[in-house]
Design goal:
With 318 residues, this protein is an alpha/beta fold. Helices cover 31% and strands 24% of the residues.
Amino acid sequence: MVLVFSDDKKLTLEMLSKGSELAKELGKKLTAVVIGKNDDALAKEYIAHGADKVFVAETDIESFKAEEYTELLESIIKETGAETVLIGSNKNGKELAPRLASRLNTGCVTDCTNLYFKDKKLTTERIVYSGNAIAVEQFNSKPQIATIPSKVFDPLPKDDKHTGDVVKKKFDVEKSASKILKIQEMKSEGVNVEDAEIIVSCGRGFKNKDDIKLVDDLAEILKGRTVGCSRPIAADLKWLAEEHWIGLSGHKVKPKLYIAAGISGQIQHIAGMRDSGVIVAINKDPEALIFKSADYGIVGDLYEILPKLTNAVKEKMG
């Protein structure tokens, strides 16, 4: 059995896509886990997106605690006999997966960008050395635990005709001694680059903070209204908040269109936007690394090109 869990619904739907592929290859069932919610609508949605079964663990756990969720998932894995476990690689998942692997005395591979079977062994691929290489690793024991980042796999199309079972069971989990004293929401400008379909990004090629308006104008005309940036703009110069930062240490994005203006194309940035649909690069240096990753490249001064491009798009769109 292949088992999928994340406390992020979008990430669960993405993992169900790859989980369905692995389950079919094994001739096994695909199970999604829901913890602490008796949510029939959510269970039906998971089934419509590929799950053969949804295991609803009814519990009085009020919020995520790694110790309690580890004990709960350990019980579910043992009860279902799951051999392959996919966990969403968000903040909570990164804390949960290695704990679970330790409890089960098994292996865990984090941030996988691909999974497949080779020589009847589950094989994973993940980006290492700041995006300069891909590590290929195989499991030698079961259960096999792998974490999956967001935006790696596309969800399967919703199929309301797909049928599956919903299993509900109550669990009593030993309360953890740790306590959550306070949860403080991070201040945000309302920008969510990870869900944007069109992103216009700026880099160190911009001379002044006020010049970023050139990127704002193009993003507005493209109706994307989403501005991204490379590391120096957010981390060093502080011209934009970190929620705009795209790269290995920032946000990983997968828009339909990604425009990179004044970005040299260091591997750390490429690792965050390499899965974009169409990539357009604007840089005055014809040897800039960004052009190796771009579908279209414009060599020239961004201060001349961006206004002209914005006007051209404006005319084209009426």
